[in-house]
Amino acid sequence: MTAHFLPLSRRAALAGGGALILSFSLSRYAVLAQDAPKPQPLPGDLKKAPFLDSWIRVGADGRITIFTGKSELGQGIKTALRQIAAEELSVQFEDTNLITSDTAQTADEGFTSGSQSMSDSGTTILHAAAQVRELLIALAAAKLGVEATTLKAERGKIVAENDQSVEYGELVAGDVLHVQAQPQSKRKDSNSFSIVGQSIARVDIPAKVFGGESYVQDMRLPGMVHARIVVPPSAKATIRSLDAAAVEKLPGVVKVYRNGNFLAVIAEREYQAVVAMNALAAVTTWTEQETLPDPEMIYDYLKSLPAKSDVILNRAAGVAPGGKTISATFKRPYQMHGSIGPSGAIAQFKDGELTVWSHGQGMFPLQASIAELLHLPKEKVRCIHVEGSGCYGHNGADDAGAGAALLAVAFPGRPVRLQWMRDQEHTWEPYGPAMLSEIRGTLDSNGNVVEFGYDVWSNTHSTRPEGAGNTMVGWLVSQSFAPPEPKPIPQPTGGGDRNAIPIYKFPNAKVTNHFISQMPLRVSALRSLGAYMNIFAIESFMDEMAVAANADPIEFRLKHLEDIRAKEVIETVADRFDWKNWRKAGPHHGRGFAFAKYKNLAAYVAIALDMEVDRETGRIRLGRAVAADDSGQAVNPDGIKNQVEGAIVQAASWTLQERVAFDRTRITSRDWATYPILRFEDVFRSVEVYVIDRPNEPYLGTGEGGQGPTAAAIANALANATGQRFRELPFSRERVKTALLQNS
Amino acid sequence: MTISLNVNGQEHAVDIDPATPLLYVLREDLRLNAAKFGCGMGQCGACTVMIDGRAMFSCLLPIAALDGRKVLTIEGLGSAEKPAAIQQAFIDEQAAQCGYCIAGMIMRAQSLLQKNSDPSDDEVRSHMQPNLCRCGTHMRILRAVRRAANAMRTARTRDKAAGLEGGGQ
């Protein structure tokens, strides 16, 4: 019907990328058949941005530029996404480059979160690249006057059987890639892969090792000035008095800025800004209130708050048979992201347009937040992601971005670099919420779990800003923005109830999520959300039930599992750890195992580890850890290993040491002395990670799969080493020592 | 007041407040990226540089205290064209996630290996104790330090055999 619009013969179009070309004509000329079948959904984020050239562009020189709406947060997407595109386009890895989230250049892929960089952006780029390749083949077929089926893509060229070839760059005149994607792609056979599946070295590491510009903190723009903020000493504090006259006269100070309770200094040089910040803090007095609950009673307090209770699993196989019932309560305190580099951002307001360079998880949501905060149209705000220190969720990045934006508008023309200080990050970042869960199980005489119950209480696990009301700046300015009502993240992924539904096949099971709206401390997304706590609880309790059933913990799990891939990661770990032949090397030596399928729909991670416990000091010495991961098709196996190792070590830190401390007024975890994290002398003796590759299977994501299993494996090893079960995090030296003394 | 600083073998005369910590001068005046601001309190090691061969927190050191002392940062250790053994080892082990702590890690490790090119695992851990990594890259960092130690010893043996002095950085 529209063949005459096309640059190809109809025959060539049908033989090659026919569907693409048809779609091209439809989108261009809006010729839509009335009785067209209902379209299939597009893969990944092509649903949000369906044009191929939103994701892939080919230069006249044949170089490929890939666009992702996700951010590099240390998870390695700057490398992995290029591998996917290079593979499907049959070009060299080196012939590609990648633009990461930028509101002026890339598609809106929301937040970089939930271990979804690969499943969202990776899947999208895979399909876009495959469709671009087929489009190039169709274009070459027309140019060469041959059947598309006789052509193949090879090293940046379309090659014919007679060895004639056309370079990609010769085929891409005009906007031929401005084409709507199709639901189906012709994907390469994974057996032919030469780039995907290779542990290509991370492209960003050399600059980090040689002192290159890698982070937003390293950007130096012409004329840039330095800002510091003075933060309220507690969440609800208000300025009582302030005389900034002396601060304004300090060397280098170009502005002292106050807007409500938002207080900042801007100086020519960075250390001048630090000196001025300290001076400003010294001349400011605050009115504070006791707004925080009693930290010793935090779990009782949380449970006493109004909650919305939802039954998220109710499986009943008739009347539950009787048997031996056990129950337990698990607790997880507030824990912080604790980025090593405090948050920062640069903003510049020039000719009515604002540009913000930020290390946040979502540039489009940040754009919306800043536009609302400053009453600017979104088109006048551009947010560009630049790497920062690892964030592991929603830390201070957006607040620093919003703060820099506010200051840039107040001090127009020159770029304003805002850098938070250590205590500001520690006391103002949103924490991973404190949580409580109650669990029970009934075993029959054969050691089968016949009834299972789980109740979890938690705040929301995401207050990521998509407007000014969830930014710290929005709360502090005089015309403040109220935070929106927190909402639970629905199943199947869940928030506080992430992984609250056990993967095991229990005939009777009931799981209830108690969502608490009221947030005594500021909370938001911390890597793996509620999964860390729920897997800690459920996988600890699986061991308790195995003990009650007098069964080996791994066999006990396998007996209740049907998922083949789950079994394979478990068996891999059992084998590599040599679980069967493991023997205690001393009276305080113990081993533990745990497993989870993240969100019950993503990566499979199993882990076994051992430890030695010093009963005198309560110190836990972590020994060997062995993990297996199935993240679907493994794009960069070493990248997966790196992420899993990181998840295990970070979760060990949470599990052994971390708890945000506060009194009735203030957060008292203000630095690394008052909020210690794991250091070299306390990390494992060794960590081995085995990656199970699943060619052609969807990418499942990796970064958040290991946290929950690590916590539970440590708890199980601690029980095995001491004969005592610990159910409240963290397993600090003090807590372990006290418990062992009480029971000795 | 003008203060003379020797950084990576070059003399710099800086005319700024002598109380300014070295970190700010490295980053702002000398435009060196490696040393990072992490805590400003000597608790995390992101700002670690070497001063006269010892690893120190540049965030705590006022430049007034640096007269006549030699400051070494990653930029002076090696380059992509001529990497130091410790830098190459971090690349070979892919010992970074976000990488923010890595420059400090490398300088602290280097200060150990210059004195002891065959440290035990416990010695490495104990020496690296002041530096924090939040991504959990510790195991790779430990492997990279061991790899660099091996490379430095091999280079030293080779240089000795060739009748050369030193080497192996």
CATH class of the largest domain in chain B: Mainly Alpha
Helix tally of chain A equals 19
Indicate the mean pLDDT of chain A.
94
Q: What strand line-up does the widest sheet of chain B have?
A: 2-1-5-3-4
- State the total count of DSSP E strands of chain B: 5
How large, in whole angstroms, is the Cα Rg of chain A? Answer: 28 Å
Overall geometry of chain B: globular
Report, as a whole number of angstroms, the end-to-end distance of chain B: 36 Å
The helix-and-strand class of chain B reads alpha+beta
Q: Helical content of chain B, roughly?
A: 25-40%
Structural class determined from secondary elements of chain A: alpha+beta
Number of helices of chain B: 6
Q: How many separate domains make up the residues of chain B?
A: 2
Tag the structure with descriptive keywords.
heterodimer; A: about 750 residues; alpha+beta; Aldehyde Oxidoreductase, domain 4; 3 domains; seven-stranded mixed beta sheet; five-stranded mixed beta sheet; 19 helices; 24 strands; about 30% helix; globular; disordered N terminus; B: about 170 residues; Ubiquitin-like (UB roll); DNA polymerase, domain 1; 2 domains; 6 helices; 5 strands
Could you characterize what this model shows?
The complex is a heterodimer of chains A (744) and B (169). Chain A folds into three domains: 3-198, 2-Layer Sandwich (Aldehyde Oxidoreductase, domain 4), CATH 3.30.365; 223-288 and 339-428, Aldehyde oxidase/xanthine dehydrogenase, molybdopterin binding domain (Aldehyde Oxidoreductase, domain 4, 2-Layer Sandwich), CATH 3.30.365.10; 435-461 and 496-742, Aldehyde oxidase/xanthine dehydrogenase, molybdopterin binding domain (Aldehyde Oxidoreductase, domain 4, 2-Layer Sandwich), CATH 3.30.365.10. Helices cover 29% and strands 21% of the residues of chain A. Chain A is built from 19 helices and 24 strands. In chain A, the strands form six sheets. Chain A has a seven-stranded mixed sheet, sandwiched between helices. In chain A, a hairpin with a 5-residue loop joins strand 1 and strand 2. In chain A, helix 3 (77-89) packs parallel to helix 4, helix 10 packs across helix 11 (397-410) and helix 17 (637-657) packs across helix 18 (707-722). Chain A starts with 9 loop residues before the first helix and ends with a helix. With 169 residues, chain B is of the alpha+beta class. Chain B has a five-stranded mixed sheet, sandwiched between helices. In chain B, strand 1 and strand 2 (10-15) form a beta hairpin. The longest helix of chain B is centred in the last third of the chain and has 24 residues, at 138-161. Chain B is globular, with a radius of gyration of 16 Å. In chain B, 53% of the residues are buried. At the A-B interface, helix 6, helix 8 and helix 17 of A face helix 1, helix 3, helix 4, helix 5 and helix 6 of B.
